Amino acid sequence: MGIYNRFHSEKGFTLIEILASIVILTIISLGFLALFTYASKSNSESENIIDGNAIAQTTMENIYDLSRESSIDQTITQLENDAYQLISTSDQFYHLRKQDNHYYIDVELKEDNDTSSFWLVSVQVIDKRNNEKRVTQIESGYIWCIERFGNRCSTINEE
User: Fold this and answer.
1) What is residue 45's predicted lDDT score, i.e. its pLDDT?
2) Is position 3 within any domain?
3) What are the UniProt keywords, alphabetically (predicted)?
4) Residue 5 domain flag
5) Which of 5, 18, 37, 110 shows a CA-CA span of 20 to 30 A to 124?
6) Which parts of the chain have pLDDT scores under 50?
7) Which of 146, 155, 154, 151 minimizes the C-alpha distance to 74?
């Protein structure tokens, strides 16, 4: 009789218990699904920021090198040769834009009124895929080359 009861027991889970456990597991699963969705979105945004910072830093370093080697007019010409389009210009201001695979790279150069040959440079990286949202912006100031002596560019502070 003991063996019969062991294999033919009528004890088990009721339908309500099974449904309750399924509902609880579903609620827990949805919580984790929301967490994974948020983590994926955050990872994508972080990747855009890292890419934007790298592009802006490389662009700023390129402009710094040009400021040490050439005049402002030669720098603008060199940037145009590097696929930048001149958007607007005036006597003391240049705005250029370059289209990358997923980004616009905006470069603004504005001459400081107080210091001769000192230019404020702003590089903005804008995400074309995300409603043209600005990803990053780097600003700096450089003293541009005044004259060339052989291969050396003379700035205000040099003799």
Assistant:
1) 86
2) no
3) Competence, Membrane, Transmembrane, Transmembrane helix
4) no
5) 37
6) 155-159
7) 146
